[in-house]
Write a structure and sequence with these properties.
14 strands, D-Maltodextrin-Binding Protein, domain 2, 2 domains, 3-stranded parallel sheet, single chain, alpha+beta, 25% strand, 33% helix
Length: 272
């Protein structure tokens, strides 16, 4: 299924809005422009401004399409149900890595995915500070600034770098994640899904295991990773991810062998 839009033109739109709304406010936010949706979950005036502009502009590109934005879902949870329909749906993370943005760190992104009937057909990830753009179209490959991205396959786990949401404490799930961390060459936390997906597809990161499966975080990136030659599956049963999935963890690796080794190391306790 091909997207009924000019993929490059959508990228230009995302870049323009990010440059106009994000960069002038980066490291310039006033305290009253930052709030909490829930304890620990920040939102800023920039999140809302970018989402409002993207939602309006993208919906106009495909008549009858709908938008599913992170902030719209936060305000009205039923907005997420739009993904269950057959219409074209724009899935929008206006400012991925909001905490990084609010604290003056450079790892933040705008992420957009185009979905129909539960299938992601195109994805865009823009990193405003470095002006880097990753884009993928189903069946056509994944590209970073025009260069094709390829994951490095065949690397032993002990040489791989992983990013995942590692549970705290000594629960069975935390210990299972710790076993995987110990088996890797290096591990760290996911701080910005968009930036980490670009690293996962283009180098610098080998393995990623998010537990929360918000579609605005993962629909574009999972497509991108697959188009770059990577392998993924839900840890529970190996099923491929789709933007309607809600329950993780999801494991993305360079190849099937790495995925199977990582799941075996963690064991069933990771699902606790």
């Amino acid at each position: 299924m091909s997207p009924p839009v000019d993929v490059a033109a959508i990228g230009d739109l995302i870049r323009t809005i990010a440059r106009e709304e994000m960069l002038p406010r980066f490291r310039q936010l006033a305290e009253h422009e930052i709030s909490h949706k829930t304890p620990g979950d920040l939102v800023t005036v920039v999140d809302h401004a970018v989402e409002d502009r993207l939602s309006e502009a993208l919906a106009a590109r495909i008549p009858g399409s709908v938008t599913v934005g992170e902030e719209a879902v936060a305000a009205h949870a039923a907005t997420l149900d739009r993904l269950d329909a057959e219409a074209w749906a724009w899935v929008i993370d206006p400012l991925d890595g909001t905490r990084n943005f609010a604290e003056g760190r450079v790892d933040f992104a705008s992420i957009v995915a185009l979905v129909r009937a539960g299938v992601t057909v195109a994805g865009w990830i823009y990193l405003p500070v470095t002006d880097r753009f990753a884009v993928a179209e189903a069946g056509s490959g994944a590209f970073l600034d025009g260069d094709r991205m390829r994951v490095e396959q065949g690397m032993p786990l002990a040489q791989q770098t992983g990013a995942f949401s590692r549970p705290r404490g000594t629960t069975a799930r935390a210990l299972a994640a710790g076993r995987l961390a110990d088996a890797l060459g290096h591990q760290r936390s996911i701080t910005c899904a968009g930036a980490d997906y670009v690293r996962l597809c283009g180098g610098g990161l080998s393995l990623m295991m998010p537990r929360s499966l918000h579609p605005w975080d993962h629909a574009a990136g999972v497509l991108m990773h697959g188009e770059a030659g990577g392998f993924h599956g839900l840890v529970a049963d190996g099923r491929p991810y789709g933007p309607r999935e809600r329950t993780g963890p999801l494991l993305l690796t360079p190849d099937r062998r790495s995925w199977e080794q990582a799941v075996a190391i963690m064991g069933p306790a990771i699902l606790a």
